[in-house]
Structures are given as structure tokens and as C-alpha cells.
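pasting for ref
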Amino acid sequence: MGYLGRYYRTYALDFWGFGESGKKRDTYAVQDFVSLVNQFMEQLGIMHAPLVGHSMGGTVSLSVAIRYPERVSKVVVVGSPIVGSSLAPLLKIAGYRTSAFVIFNMMGPFRLFMKYYSRVICSDPRFPEMMDRDLSRTTLESFLLSIASLRRTDLRPMLDQIKIPAMGIYGDRDKVVHPKQWQPMLAGIHHAHIERFPLAGHFPMLEEPQKFAEKLKLFLDQDDISHAPQVVASPNPVPSVTLAP
């Protein structure tokens, strides 16, 4: 956002139950967050803008483009599951009530474990502290219900409804979401532009920030993207970009 903010007006929102959004709800399903993005844009008077989402945020962004196509001018997903079964086994297990209950009642040891394991997920030395901070702000209900909902999600039957420019950014070393989730995205959105980061994992924006920022800005800046599928291994006057976590 620091980089894009020089060229775009950017907005970031926390999903219900995450970060600084402590709103208590009965459900935290993917479709709840789709409605949240629509409400967020409506309240701020953002009628039409690109959406950029990382991980579940990208799954939500694609879903917004499907459900509220008038809202979205372009959509970018980063390490996002198109099919929920592509989540890492440990993450899928954590989406079951018993597992989530055990984790959240042993949060101290779990956070210590994640400080170690986070070095496997992301090479950025700042990431363990970032992960620990995010875990401390997450509720049991939001974690359990959102992961369970994401696990059951399958966007493949609806992807052909997306006619706007779409981009997928995936790290070949992703250990959170299967790194080849760009394949069902490209199969469903034939004009999608795919950028692969061979040396990055689930967080290419942290592991290769300059390359990531340049690729993202180039896509956002283009007025028209060729509808020929593209797979790559390797300024407008204050438009708005909405970023979902």
C-alpha cells in the first residue's frame, strides 16, 4: 500500500473477527466477507474500482467480481485458493471445531510454534512478528468458521462469469495454498494474466517486494489487458484500489 499509495487512493479493510475489526457475528463465511466488501465500497462511495486480495482475501475478491460485477473494474489475487481443498493439510484440520478449540486453548505454545514455522512459510525476517500480531487479534469463532467456509469453497463453476481483466500471482514455493492454484484460475478465466514467482512462497509481496509491486502496478495501470491467456514465471489520476486481506 505504501508503494501503490503514490499513484492510487488505496483502502484496506479487516474482515469481521480479524485485525482491528472486533465485530461479533454468528457466521464468518466467505460470502459474509463478500457482502462486507460491497458494503464497504457502498459506504465510502466507491462505485467501481480494482480489487486486490491476498489468500482468502483474493478468494473473496473473485467472489465479489462474480456477485457484484458492477463494483469491480479489475481483480488481482495473490496466493489465493480457487478450490478450498488446495489448503495445506494443517490449515484444513484447524478448520474443524475440535482442532480449533485445542489451538485457541493452547495459544501460547501455538504462537511459539508459529514463530518457528513462519520462517518456513515466508523468508522475510519481519514475518514471524507479523504472524504473531495477527494471531493475537483473531477470535476463535472467526478463525474456525472462516477456514471451514474457505475449505468448502469451489469457485471453478463460476469463474467464466468474470469478464473483467484478472490477474493471479502465485509463489511456486507456497506451503499454505497449493502453488498450482493458478491453473484452475486460468482454466476458468481464459483471459487471466498469471505471474509466477519461482523463489517465493505464500507472501511474494514480502519476499520479492520490488518485483511484486512493479508487476501489480503494471497490471493496474493498463487500460486494456489482452484477452489472450498469459503465464509469466518470473499512473492514473488518483483512482481507487480496494485491498482485501
